[in-house]
Amino acid sequence: MNHRERMLAALRFQQPDRVPRYASLAPAVAEMFRRETGLSDPAAYWDWDVAQVAFAPPEPPPDLGARYGRYYAELDSEWLLSWEHRDFPPEWGVATRPAHLYHLSAPVAPLRNLGSLAELEAYPWPDYLGEWRHDHLERDVARLHAAGHFVDAHIGWIFQTAWTLRTEVGLFVDMHDRPELAEALLARITAIRVAQAERLAAAGVDSISLNDDIGSQRGMILSPAMWRRWLAPRMAAVIQAVRRINPAILFRYHSDGDYRPVIPDLIRMGVSSLRTVQPEAMDLFAIKHQYGRQIALEGTIGLQGELMHGTPDDVRRMVRAQCQELMPGGGWLGAPGNTVTPDVPWENLAALFEALDRYGKYVA
Predict the structure, then answer these.
(1) Tens digits of per-residue pLDDT, 139-162?
(2) Per-residue pLDDT reduced to its tens digit, 113-134
């Protein structure tokens, strides 16, 4: 099987030749890979199965200071708003506050002082279809398909975009005290995500991915009722939009943490796979037993357990156990649940993919 055939089989609950795999590496880990292997492409080295396409930033990029600088004029703390620092999307006007820990940082919300719907309407929203470049998408997808790749496209966030613009506290206060502001903010964000998703679906991608962290390791960040009220209809609108263009397109959803109460909702709205099922927060094997024929599971390899603190043999045993329990019937992709950070030893990262090679093959 090639990469695309393997991914499509697994995501459609068929058994491929082996478990599909991929990972995301923090910049320091990518450098560690280059140092340890002498190579530059971890996807080729470990035979990862997912390729990405994306909108390209405008050329020349607009002056972010002129566009958004007034929203930070009163701040004297350290912050960055530039095309070179993309931990948070600068095209939305969200500045980055360096955290000085690995690649990590924190957002500075431009709409933290929002007071009215008029101010919200006046905000300079990003224009992905009019300003960003996307005429390359069909060519990129065709090239990757011809090479046997499965092609995914990530459209960003809805909930996270809202709170990085408004602050978490500000968004939750709006939901309770000024729902018209929360409605207008989420509607504007959703319309932009729908437009992005429709354009990518028309370009022929195999899957659309949306990230929206709604879980912590002790439960959901917002109640299931709040999620159903404020977020579920917006995500459903994105899924419905892309399926009108291509009914077969797959929709992959990421959240960290424990979001078990809404998994049935995600299945009903048409989510194809959970891109992270975090073992520190949820019982992987129980999720597989309960939902394994309805929604595919990804990102089941935790970053806080064996991969970070164990030995290579511990990692191999963990991967073997996941292969034994999660492989049957397809519907599982072997991948870390989030970006691999530099506190994961090289030997453990290498052991992860060695173990997937050893234990992740299906019997013909």
Answers:
(1) 999 999 999 999 999 999 999 999
(2) 999 999 999 999 999 999 999 9
Distances (CA, A) of 72 to 64, 67, 97, 111: 12, 11, 12, 10
Closest CA to 288 of 309, 313, 260: 260
Q: Which amino acid is at 43?
A: A
Burial class (CB in 10 A: 0-12, 13-18, 19+), 146: exposed
Looking from the CA of 218 toward its CB, the CA atoms found within 13 Å total 0
CA atoms of 327 and 308, how far apart (whole Å): 23
Rounded distance between C-alpha atoms, residue 124 and residue 121, angstroms: 8
Asked whether the beta carbons of 274 and 262 are under 8 A apart, the reply is no
Question: Does the bond joining 60 to the residue before it have cis omega, within 30 degrees of 0?
Answer: yes
Please compute the mean of the pLDDT values over residues 310-332 and round it to a whole number: 98
The CATH number, out of the four listed (3.40.50.1820, 3.40.50.720, 1.10.10.10, 3.20.20.210), of the domain defined by the range 3-55+134-359: 3.20.20.210
| Dihedral-angle region of residue 13 (phi above 0 means left; psi in -120 to 50 means alpha; beta otherwise) | left
d(CA 204, CA 136): 12
